[in-house]
Design goal:
By secondary structure, the chain is mainly alpha-helical. Helices cover 75% and strands 0% of the residues. It contains 10 helices and no strands. α4 (58-78) crosses α6 (107-117), α5 runs antiparallel to α8 (130-144) and α5 (85-102) runs antiparallel to α10 (182-193). The termini are far apart.
Length: 197
């Protein structure tokens, strides 16, 4: 029994070391440029060990996708479910910006491409729960009378996702500081406030 726990702890440490190495290498050379051998050299493991945890380099993106949805599910359980719906929507956008800053947002360029190319496989693993969380918050707010009902749940969610996706495009193409600009967050929060009753 003790051996199994030690193996699990070592497995977790190896997986975290691979994740950290990938984050560092994405910053330095980019996701497309790095190879599995580069990752293994950085971590100090064999290629066989890498393939024990991940079936391909693209699986690192799938791993990030799973962690992304888990991050927002946990956020909902700990914070969002207990607050006013308008404040919850604002917090989701704020958390999205923080998540982007702290999780090497550059990797998302490749992430979105792979997500589209392998969408069936990704959907089988775990559907994106963030739109569902946002829909539930909006629907609850409309039922409670805290969010305007002259807009549909879909319309409000689409606007929020358009803003979040626009931030990513802005980051990739024009301005790397957009995610840390408090003025941008204030404008987004003002926009969300317009849905409040």
């Amino acid at each position: 029994m003790k051996r199994q726990i030690v193996v699990r702890e070592r497995d977790n440490a190896t997986i975290e070391a691979i994740r950290a190495a990938v984050d560092n290498m994405v910053e330095e050379i980019g996701f497309d440029t790095m190879t599995v051998r580069d990752i293994c050299k950085e971590v100090g493991i064999t290629v066989g060990t890498f393939y024990h945890y991940f079936s391909s380099k693209n699986d690192l993106l799938l791993d990030r996708y799973i962690r992304y949805t888990k991050f927002f599910e946990d956020c909902y359980e700990k914070e969002l479910c207990c607050m006013n719906e308008i404040d919850a929507l604002k917090l989701i956008v704020k958390k999205q910006m923080e998540y982007g800053q702290s999780r090497v947002f550059e990797m998302y360029k490749r992430y979105y491409q792979i997500m589209i190319d392998e969408s069936d496989r990704w959907a089988e693993v775990r559907p994106d729960s963030v739109p569902v969380l946002i829909d539930n918050i909006i629907r609850n707010g409309q039922e409670k009378g805290t969010i305007r009902s002259d807009f549909s749940v879909r319309e409000i969610r689409t606007l929020i996702f358009s803003i979040m996706n626009g931030l990513a495009i802005e980051y990739f193409t024009v301005d790397k500081s957009v995610l840390s600009d408090p003025g941008i967050l204030n404008i987004i929060e003002d926009c969300i406030d317009r849905f409040a009753i």
